[in-house]
Input
Amino acid sequence: MADRTSADSGRTDGAAHTRTGPEGDGTAPPAEYRTAELAGAAGITMRTLRFYRERRLLPPPRREGRIAWYNEHHLNRLRTISALLARGHTLGGIADLIDAFEKGRDAGGAAELLGLESALVSPWSEETPVRLTPEDLAAHFPDEVTSDNLAAALNLGYVAVDGDEVVHVSRRLLDASTALVGEGIPLGAVLEAGRVVREHADAVADLFTNLVRAHLFTGVRELSPDDLRRLSDVMDRLRPLAKQVVDVELALAMDRRVRAELESWSRPDGPDRGTGTGPGGEPGGPGAGGEPGSPSGD
Output
């Protein structure tokens, strides 16, 4: 079953909505998000989004009847809040910065920090959320939409519930999960693999950011305006390099693992039937099938 498509716009639900701008002004219409779509794009829960809104950390949304519409400014603000929290700022301090910026007090310093909205916090990901009805979800994952799988997907942040629909955070992840389930891999196993991949991806992101902090900003305790501009330039250059390194290393790792698996299958005793996984998720590590390194009571 295909994803729902808006009859009046020809748009597949899930992508950022667009609102018709002034006719003939030559500008692209602004992208807009419903609540669950905004939360998914920002990588936060709807509960967190509502909390930020109650704390007045976000400007009011545009309202159309009972529907709240958010735009790129709201999305950038949420990413800024996440970045400032990661740097050790408290929500109270962030609220003070936003208030100072909006009321003109210490506008220079606040603007430098909140300038992360267009610099450091510009997204590395290029994901498009997807709106799905329960029927759509069942069509993607026949007989796999269980309460356990839904809970796992919610905990991972892959999906959020918006009324009687579900918003998946990423078209590409949805397509990949659908394809893996189509190959015969249970959805629960796919979601568990996603959890492990998330952990490793977080570790790789930590590695790259620690390299920058340790070698390019040694001893810097608080970023000055010049440091912010330099960091923004560094991150812009780092983005394609980081993605390139991860892509190459994953391809090389898959080559090694496929060769190892083929060699295992060609042995007279066949492939290792153990269920344990070693470091990095490799079969045959500690605790797997009696291989060296298995717990032996010592």
User: Anything to note?
Assistant: The chain has a mean pLDDT of 75. The beta strands are 17-18, 31-33, 62-64, 67-71, 130-132, 159-162, 165-168.
